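RESIDUES AND SHAPES:
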Amino acid sequence: MADMNIDTLLDQALNRSERERAVLAEALISSLEKEPEMDVEKAWQDEIGRRVAELDSGATSTLPWEEVRRKLHGRD
């Protein structure tokens, strides 16, 4: 298998079942991910906590996706 080129490998992968391709994709993506840095992870947790608190207190509200999409595309 060490001699297999990327095109052959890709061809074999694409000929697998949907479930097998999903497992393979997850494994490949996971192999690229690094362990999260603790300070970054902590910052995200703090931000999530802040946003949840704002929602709970009524200081902010959410928008439906359709409205966000209209605004992004300049149709508001």
Remarks:
- The two ends are 56 Å apart (CA to CA).
